Amino acid sequence: MTTFASGTDTLTRDALTVLQPGFTGTSAPDWLLRRLGEGLASVGLFGRNIASPEQLAALTAQLRAERDDVLVAIDEEGGDVTRLEVRTGSSFPGNHALGAVDDVELTREVAAELGRRLAACGVNLNWAPSADVNSNASNPVIGVRSFGADPALVARHTAAYVTGLQSAGVAACTKHFPGHGDTAVDSHHAMPRIDADASVLADRELSPFRAAIAAGTRAMMSAHILVPALDPDHPATLSRPVLTDLLRGDLGYTGLIVTDGMEMQAIAATYGIERGSVLAIAAGADAICVGGGLADDETVRRLRDALVTAVRSGELPEARLAEAAERVRELARWTATVPRAEGDSRPDVGLVAARRALRLTGAGEAAATEPFTPLTEPPYVAAFTPVANIAVGDETPWGVAAELAHLLPGTETGSFAGEEAGREALAAAAGRRVVAVVRDEHRHPWMAAAVDTLLRSRPDTIVVEMGVPQANPRGALHIATFGAARVCGRAAAEAIAGA
């Protein structure tokens, strides 16, 4: 491939402008600063880039010293998917907990407070909220990232989230269009397919995106999913019928369209990131997200050159690339000029929401006649730990043990998985009261078997479900938190200890 090194001509600058790369480290590398000077207009941040709010503010200031209108994006959904608090767990419950409460004003307040924290650190574009309707309970990648399975509920909370986040001056990026909820495959690993017909898609998947557009979402993220009713040949990210005809035409959306990470296997393993990026821009995308796994100057150069070559060969209309670049600049101008709503900060709103989301069910034999008696002695917490999906990652701690240890000093914990998990947990507990913590028990037969084993020997076991609560409640007390954020763990611990 020919290399175009000047970075100064309009075509090359536009090719850089549409890229949203990541990088490694907690300060900006020299190559990134150089690319910002050559036309790069966006940067994506991940947990690897963040050590503290103060460090993040210094990093974004470093970027703006090179380009004052740079878009600094982050994947900060709150709940299970957090980058700001990747090493401690989030101060905000995720979408599923907010949907369980079903108070749109609370959702707006949570999003506004999250937006204030992002803005204070210099972040002005958030790849959130997830507007996916979690209609498939076996979905391995959406789950508690969704407000729920009811399209009307998801629509009203998506709109509230967009409104709250953007009131803080942070652009919302509603995802994953046209809807990733009815999938049983994670697009980080392979290409999911949704075989619903067009009428079902219109009533179910598209409803929350219509609400987001009506609420003024400034950006929209495409999904790497194949939806034959819309386009039998190309995944949504690479589909003109989906991005241009449906999203722009039928739904009337005029804001920025961002791709999901192009290094995800649904695209990278099928098309390659260079070819995929050209096809995405041609289909109607305006910004190419890359950097969750690929984060270096070589990747930026390859994608820039692929776009320039496609224009010069006639495969990609230059006007389409220029239009995409202008939409990136337009969003940058919005972030620089949007007025921020007045109002007091509510630093505790995430915990308030997590407490309100709890669902406590007395499932044991005595539950009908005797109320649950809070624990006064430190228990043994058995965490039945599934493999985390890539969006959530395995860096972020979850569960109730740390929070219970604050309330009941001496609490011990262990992590278990596999066919022997239940017996191993019983042995480790050694007679202590057991708190079994599960995450999407309904998706993991080994986990359900482990809880069965525990309850046969220890019917007084407390079960805490921190995923989507689909399995029947059981145990002396069953607590559904609707997410595994730190505040969800704290709320559950308070219920267990009667705090």
Automatic annotation (TrEMBL):
SUPFAM superfamilies: (Trans)glycosidases. One of its GO terms (biological process) is peptidoglycan turnover. It comes from the Bacteria. This is Glycoside hydrolase family 3 protein. It comes from Streptomyces cyaneochromogenes. Residues 40-330 form the Glycoside hydrolase family 3 N-terminal domain. One of its GO terms (molecular function) is hydrolase activity, hydrolyzing O-glycosyl compounds. Keywords: Glycosidase, Hydrolase. Belongs to the glycosyl hydrolase 3 family.
